[in-house]
Each structure stands twice: as structure tokens, then as C-alpha cells.
Amino acid sequence: MRIPFCKMHGLGNDFVVIDARTAAVAVSAARAAALADRRTGIGCDQLILLEPSAAADVRMRIFNPDGGEVEACGNAARAVGFLLGGAHSIETLGGIIRAEARDDSVAVDMGAPRFGWEDIPLAYAMDTLSMPVAWDELEAPVAVNVGNPHVVFFVPDAHAVDLARLGPLIEHDPLFPARINVNVASVTGPDHLTLRVWERGAGLTRACGTGACASAVAAIRRGLTGRKVWVDLPGGRLKIGWPMGGAVLMAGPAQMSFAGSFEDADYPL
User: Fold this and answer.
1) Which among 39, 120, 142, 143 has most CB atoms closer than 10 A?
2) Is 118 a domain residue?
3) pTM surpassing 0.90?
4) What is the C-alpha radius of gyration for the chain, rounded to an integer number of angstroms?
């Protein structure tokens, strides 16, 4: 049996999307990791599985290259919104979000951010607006859950940080029992951030939609920007808004790269 897929990306953060709404497709951690492998598989930052949902228009499951299933992915939400067209509600492990395809972008309502130490989660209680912890030059981060957990470090130059070394150390620190996404952000202009992200279970990627949301929310909470923020990532720019007491709103592009299919037996469970 051949299984069709679409290869898509949002600002270079790339996905293999399998539509299993009418014909079920089984995915295990081993199969997800094999499909994501860039040498022996199709290759992607995340595998996305679309399934029927009793709570929304579609259920989106997200698997990292290490095979782990995660709660949310902003760029994937835009890719799925682009693929489906129009406006749709999307069930994720992190909650129900809403995506709307527009002429030149996809807008996503990511829901309300959470800031309690137990919501991140952290191993013990502390202030999430300025955490009293440090890893080398990275210190006093903001912690926020935007469907998945993030810490955000504000630094003078995001590109000068050795995130390839520090990212995995922070991701796997015992302070974060569910591991963590690591963001380094610089304020580079009025309502403007430059951002790099070490993604939990994926490593350095060209863009991270939830990282952009988390970093914008962190900057707003710190009083570093207004409530509408442009976020520049290595792959391009996203627009993030967070109205007072409301949901985080993200807008940016998504694109189809190509479509194909693979033999079910080539990627065993």
C-alpha cells in the first residue's frame, strides 16, 4: 500500500504532512523518526499526521525527528491551514487552535499563553518572568507555555550565542521535567525582535512559530515592545500580536514544496 504525503514548509521549517482523515495511517516513534531522516527518509523537521477530530475540524499530531510526539507547532499550523484553505479549527495536544488562510499568509489563533511554573512545567516553583537561573552567559529567562513549553533569553546579539552547545544542555536540564524549547532573542528595533531557537527534540531550525509567539509574549511582559511584534528568524519574518488578556495571534507564510507517496512497508512500525 502506498501512502501519499505533502512536503511543506513555513519559513524553511519543513514538514511531511500525511492526511489520514479518510484512511487511517499508523505512526509510531520509530516510523516518525525514519520518515524524518534526511538521508534515508523523506526528511523534515516534523512529521504531521492529520486525523478526524470530535472536537474540531481536524486533529493535528506532531512528531519530532527523535520520534517524540509534541503538543504544538506554529509553523505546522500555518502549513495545515494553507493545505486546508479557508478557516478551520485544529485540535492539538496543546489545545484547540484556529487557522485561516489568506491571500499571502496564514493567520493562526494560538490560544492564551500560560505562565504558572506548573504550566511550563518546572521542577519546582519560581518566578517565570525572571527565572533565577543561568547557563553560562544565558541568564534570567522568561518561561511561557504557548501550547508547548519555552524559555526565552534576551541577549544583545542572538547570533553570537553558541546555541548549538547551550540548547541541548538547557533542553535536558532537570529543571524542565518535560524538556524545553530554548529561545535567544534580541530587541533590534521598536516592536522588533531577532530570534534563534533550539527546538525540543529537533535542534536548530530555520524558524519556530511557537518560539516566535513565546518570545513576543516574553518581550511584551517585560515591557520591551508593544503588543504587536515583528519577529525575524533565520528563515524569515512572522507577525505576532497579543491583545491584553487575549490569545496570541500569529501571521506568516506557508508553502507547498512537493507531493509524493511511499510504500507502507518501507517504514515499518
Assistant:
1) 143
2) no
3) yes
4) 18
CATH assignment at residue 78: 3.10.310.10
Domain span holding position 240: 134-251
Residue 204 belongs to a domain: yes
Does residue 102 share a domain with residue 41?
yes
Domains held by the chain: number: 2
Is 213 part of the annotated catalytic residue set?
no
Q: Are the beta carbons of 208 and 150 closer than 8 angstroms? A: no
Q: Is residue 44 among the annotated active site residues?
A: no
User: Catalytic residue among 6, 44, 73, 213, which?
Assistant: 73
Q: Which three cell numbers stand for residue 172?
A: 535536558
Could you tell me the mean pLDDT of each successive run of 10 residues in the chain, 269 residues long? Answer: 97 97 97 98 98 98 96 96 97 96 94 97 98 98 98 98 98 98 96 98 95 98 98 98 95 97 95
Beta carbons within 10 angstroms of residue 235's beta carbon:
19
Residues sharing a CB contact under 8 Å with residue 189, sequence separation 6 or more, in sequence order: none
- Tell me the HSE value of 16 on the side-chain side, using a 13 A CA sphere: 24
C-alpha to C-alpha distance for 45 and 13, rounded to whole angstroms: 6
User: Residue 5: exposed, middle, or buried by beta-carbon count in 10 A (0-12, 13-18, 19+)?
Assistant: buried
Report the phi/psi class of residue 29: left, alpha or beta, with left for phi > 0 and alpha for psi in -120 to 50: alpha
- What pLDDT digit, counting tens, does each position of 154-213 carry? 999 999 999 999 999 999 999 999 999 999 999 999 999 999 999 999 999 999 999 999
